[in-house]
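Researcher: Next entry in the queue.
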Amino acid sequence: NLTYAKSQSSAVTVTDQSDIAIMKYLWTQTNETSAASGTSFTNNSTLSKATGDGTWYLCVYAKDIYNNEANECSNAFYLDNTSPTITFETEHLSETLKSHTVNVGVSDMAPITSAKYLWSTTSSGNPKTNGTAFSLTNGEANITKNTGSGQYYLCIYAEDIAGNSNTSCYQALNFDNDGPVITTNTICTRLNESVPVGQYISATDISGVVSIQASKTPNGTYINNLSELDQGIQTVYFKATDSLGNVSSPKAVTVSVYMNLAEDINVITSGDGLYNVSGRKIYKGTSPNNYITFNGETWRIISIESDGRIKIRRNDLMPARAYGGT
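Model: Structure for this entry, 326 residues:
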């Protein structure tokens, strides 16, 4: 039998013109061995061997009542009762990886008929049932993982032509293919105030966060500082990048950019706008642009006093006239 199997057998018949006195058999790994010291058997028996590995021969010794002897050995039988050996490379065990290729070796004296792999989150993964078949070249294969985040084990199942099988899982590898997680509340900042885009943003990642960027649209041009934002309530989109180059999805954050009335409004000397009159800041003109809105109502700023108090009046109570009074 030229095929490897867990057990091999052969039906043996001994004939002679006279009666047979002794019949013995011996399984041996050489084909020139006498079975005279072997095990007795009954004629027309099927003799089997279900242990051991490698090449085996069935040798039979027979002697008739007249002491005529014969010893014959069969053609080779091939036995395999050992599971395939699975080996892995041993690099990058402690690093966090974006992608990694593991070199897998599968060896056996018999041909491998099935090989499967499974990236499992536990060291007891079942690649036989849940795995993906792969091919071996000279007993080796490179298996790559470049998706997912967290701890993964590479589990291999191999089975030879005799039905011997083995499952082995590689040591845990840490992968990170997700962008950082951004958490933040509504941001409030002063107009034209220099504020790095990451000052009010919290971002976490297993590989460490290396940068935080912001833009006025989900995939727009990045701004370097919140001072580039206009006055008012607006949506700003933040992205964070980790040390492996993974980028988070845009995080929409409400940013309120306020104006300090006492300091941020330019004082003028002509036209419509804010004038400095003996330490008081007073709006003058027909269209001084001095509206503010809160509580659902529109108000107008009348003046900013020297002590910081601000005088306002509801717009619907204002007379239709130019500003300029005190």
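Model: The chain has a mean pLDDT of 90.
Researcher: Noted, moving on.
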